From TrEMBL:
SUPFAM superfamilies: L30e-like (SSF55315), Translational machinery components (SSF53137). Residues 273-352 form the eRF1 domain. Pfam families: baeRF_family10, eRF1_3. It comes from Tengunoibacter tsumagoiensis. This is eRF1 domain-containing protein.
Length: 356
């Protein structure tokens, strides 16, 4: 099964050769109100947009036949293959080029239905930027629960556990108090060392970029001491106070605001780097044309887009496609006042060209 990143690069390299491509992003969450609370919020949006697009192709546009075949396949997929627990779905379709790709998420998209010469990849790029894999560890002195957040889905995986027998006070009848406390402390350290090792192994296995720690006030500071220097920079500073028996749904509710905060911090740091680069060493550009030129030359290392500044969707899509095809990362930023004032578009550069 291909990953979202693999799909992103496949679509960026796609050449429709004169055909039109559907780019569909749907919020699949239910209304939760009204006469049909279970009805998807995207259902009427998709229906109305399909009719609107079809009218532009009547009576005999060359793309009309392909449009209708794609529409039929899209509707069939949504009716027969989409699970009720999904929160977001992306569909890319072009019958004439035998393209039909889908992506299913535990996170929502903004409803968008486009029928254009190239796939619109902005929301997919935003997803890759915002939904990096996160490892969460909920730990007490003898139990570790490990979780992985991928594309909006939270999954629990096995973590190390320790028998509570060695911590029982009945041992004090045969050991003096000092020896008992020393034994407990050594046992606790050994367990937390195992927990730190399990966290590191899971980070490597999943390719995670961030780690969230949660648990009791005794275990977490000691766990911090056991985490390797390589993993430590990934660990979020705030420690969540979660009981080891917290249900999965409640764990997700607690960590989601933290993940959102971490994403915002990281994106604002990149926007700050853009501003400083323009002010200082010139390894940055702003504006649509300047940024597009840098991408075409292969200079751009990071394309930075404000997702709260109105941009022409086709120009934005072209920027994202160029970034994907030249190895530039795409960073979407929300609520950065200076970036907004700069027009919402810029790039950090690998190098500055010396020719005119």
């Amino acid at each position: 099964m291909q990953t979202a990143r693999e799909l992103f690069h496949k679509l960026a390299a796609f050449e429709p050769d004169g055909s039109y491509v559907f780019s569909i992003y749907l919020d699949m969450s239910p209304h939760m109100s009204g006469k049909q609370p279970w009805r998807r919020t995207s259902t009427p949006v998709l229906r109305d947009r399909l009719r609107e697009i079809e009218k532009t192709l009547l009576p005999r546009h060359p793309a009309l036949n392909g449009f209708r075949k794609d529409e039929e396949r899209i509707q069939s997929y949504l009716e027969n293959h989409v699970e009720p627990w999904l929160q977001g779905v992306a569909i890319f379709a072009c019958d004439q080029q035998n393209l039909f790709e889908t992506l299913e998420l535990g996170a929502t998209f903004q409803n968008q239905i486009a029928f254009e010469p190239y796939p619109d990849l902005f929301q997919l790029a935003h997803l890759l930027d915002e939904e990096e894999t996160v490892v969460t560890a909920v730990v007490d002195t003898n139990t570790t629960r490990l979780f992985v957040t991928r594309m909006g889905f939270l999954e629990e995986v096995a973590g190390p556990n320790d028998s509570p027998d060695g911590y029982s006070k009945r041992n004090t009848t045969c050991l003096n108090q000092a020896r008992y406390h020393r034994r407990v402390e050594n046992k606790r350290k050994e367990f937390l060392r195992e927990a730190a090792s399990a966290i590191e192994e899971l980070v490597d296995q999943e390719g995670a970029k961030r780690v969230i720690l949660a648990g009791d006030a005794v275990a977490i500071p000691q766990l911090h001491q056991e985490i390797s220097k390589r993993i430590e920079p990934m660990v979020h500073e705030e420690i969540l106070n979660l009981d080891i028996r917290t249900p999965l749904r409640d764990v997700q509710a607690e960590i989601q605001p933290v993940i959102t905060f971490m994403n915002r911090e990281a994106s604002h740091t990149q926007a700050d780097n853009l501003v400083e680069g323009i002010r200082a060493n010139g390894l940055a550009v702003s504006g649509i044309q300047e940024t597009l030129h840098a991408l075409e030359l292969g200079q751009a290392d990071v394309l930075i887009l404000a997702n709260d500044v109105p941009l022409d969707e086709q120009e934005r899509s072209k920027l994202v496609r160029k970034a994907a095809n030249t190895g530039a990362k795409v960073e979407s930023v929300q609520g950065h006042a200076v970036l907004q004032a700069m027009g919402g578009v810029g790039a950090l550069l690998r190098y500055r060209a010396n020719w005119v």
